[in-house]
Amino acid sequence: MLTKTMLSFIFVIGFALVHLSSKYISFMGKSPRSKFLSFAGGVAVSYVFLHLLPDLNHYQEKVEPSLDRGIGKYIEDHIYMIAMLGLALFYGLERMVKKSKKKHNSSSNADDAPASLGVFWIHTASFFVYNAVIGYLLIREEYETKWGMFFFFTALSIHFVANDWGLRKDHKHTYDKYGRVLLTIAILLGWGIGVLTAVHELILSVLVALLAGGIILNVLKEELPEDQESSFLAFCTGLACYSVLMMLV
């Protein structure tokens, strides 16, 4: 019988392999946009709304005693405000990347140029924390069954493939050379921290809320722009399939 730690170790290795091998998935770069990316967006949205956002109620109980003082006592639902800030933070990063690409490309199509090296490191650092939190949650999340861990792994593995595609589009070969390796290390590091110790619940609650906002933004930025030629049918299929699986657990 596999223990929770052993099972999480198998899955964290799976996460690492997803990052290291995603560059070799040939259909991802096809035009029009791969339907798999839209399917991945649907799965990620389902995960956020059916699992991650409901979990924020639990984290709200953890942060309320610490944040319900000073100006915080005039604010309700602190954790959702932090999630909103997470969305705003990742939106700001995306705008920074877009401006950098335009600045470093004189042609009309800024997507053909990578962002500057400085922007790459800032962008990668944000996703390093993003991935480390996911690695930590893999071992520290309270799953009702082992299937719950499996569905966590499935949803975020698909989401990682989509994230890798977006980061590679923004940073080209620099991401393949450094970024995907660093994000792999982040997943393993977060899992290792979770095995060795429990992060203070206030810190974890804030990080999970920021993660929720980040996932929402990362899905929307890939699905909404008209030039992405995303597939609404594939998006809805991913949304429906993962929602049914979540309800069956």
Q: Can you walk me through this structure?
A:
By secondary structure, the protein is mainly alpha-helical. Helix content is 77%, strand content 0%. The chain has helices spanning 4-21, 35-67, 78-103, 117-140, 146-171, 173-196, 201-223, 232-248.
Any chance you could write out the topology, listing elements then pairs?
Layout: H1 4-21, H2 35-67, H3 78-103, H4 117-140, H5 146-171, H6 173-196, H7 201-223, H8 232-248
Radius of gyration equals 18 Å
Order of helices and strands: HHHHHHHH
- Fraction of helical residues: over 70%
Number of helices: 8
Structural class: mainly alpha
- On the 0 to 100 scale, the average pLDDT is 82
Bin the strand percentage. under 5%
Uncertain ranges: none
Major sheet size, sense and barrel closure: none
How many β-strands, per DSSP? 0
Q: Ends: how far apart? A: 20 Å
Q: Which word captures the global form?
A: globular
How do you describe this structure in short?
The chain is mainly alpha-helical. Helix content is 77%, strand content 0%.
Entry keywords:
single chain, 249 residues, mainly alpha, 8 helices, 0% strand, globular
